[in-house]
Design a protein that fits this description.
By secondary structure, this protein is mainly beta. The chain contains one helix and ten strands, in the order E-E-E-E-E-E-E-E-E-H-E. A six-stranded mixed beta sheet has the order 3-2-1-4-8-6, with no helix packed on it. Strand 2 (27-35) and strand 3 (41-44) form a beta hairpin. The protein starts with 7 loop residues before the first strand and ends in a 9-residue tail after the last strand.
Length: 171
């Protein structure tokens, strides 16, 4: 049975912090965050306040905007979800990186055949937005993250909360 229609869509960002060292050309830190109302990715650290806070019983679409050059297996704890679709981002012709503010490039394409049914991890391809639909039934504090160990240890993990905060709970 498909999940209910969503009550909210959350634009989330997968990013890399680039090196400022002249001897190193490339990313030095993988990060997560959100895409703000103007279409700009905003990175967030693990210790920043929770920004993803669905109510118990809500169904939401989470959009993973991948601004990096890598595919990331994105995992959302405590829920199963359906892969909704993917859509390309407009890329800068000189750098090949997604333009900012973000722009969508065309028609969404359906999930791959092997992505039918409920999932707990989805591959977010570079230069695309990957959309998932999840129902949040279990109250508490959980995490969403990239399932590459080096990335989750390197700020590519964020806490989220289902329902109201419990004053007596740790964290």
């Amino acid at each position: 049975t498909p999940l209910p229609a969503e009550t909210m869509t959350r634009p989330l960002a997968l990013m890399e912090m680039m090196s400022m060292n002249l001897g190193h050309d490339g990313p030095v830190e993988a990060m997560l965050g959100r895409v703000d109302a103007s279409g700009m990715p905003m990175h967030q650290m693990w210790s920043d306040p929770v920004t993803e806070n669905p109510n118990v019983g809500d169904t939401e679409v989470w959009e993973f905007y991948n601004f990096t050059a890598d595919a990331h297996p994105m995992h959302v704890h405590e829920v199963v979800f359906e892969v909704v679709n993917r859509e390309g981002l407009v890329l800068d012709s000189a750098t090949g990186a997604p333009v900012r503010p973000v722009q969508l490039s065309g028609v969404p394409r359906p999930p791959e055949a092997w992505e039918s049914g409920f999932k707990d991890t989805v591959i977010a391809y570079p230069g695309e937005v990957t959309r998932i639909r999840a129902k949040f039934d279990t109250p508490g504090r959980f995490v969403w993250h990239c399932h590459i160990v080096e990335h989750e240890d390197n700020e590519m993990m964020r806490p989220y909360r289902i329902g109201r905060a419990d004053r007596d709970a740790p964290g």
